[in-house]
Specification:
The chain has four helices and three strands. The chain is of the alpha+beta class. Strands 2-1-3 form a three-stranded antiparallel β-sheet.
Length: 112
Amino acid sequence: MKAWNVTDQNCDTGINYIVFAETRGGAIQKALHHSDGTFDWYSFTELRAHRRPQLDAYWHGRDFMDWNNEEDRIAMVKLDGFACSDECYMTYEECLECPAHEWCRKFEEKNE
């Protein structure tokens, strides 16, 4: 299974998912049918998927990496540069509680 970073073409949502699928098209299909509804108003051609081979090893039979899973979050931040969204205003103290803070670019900015 291959890891893909899926988002909308113009990054209007600001949301990315790490999806596990054999093909780019398969990753987009899974993102379109994700239960949280982020891409409910999008068509197949309005989404893009980019390979993230550094995350392939984190496939454990699930279709998506889970930001709320500590191991997944660390991998997403450390290996693929993920961070909290810009709409998420975390204090320095709240960032310290995140299991991935030592690899996070936003934590580094707050720490300067």
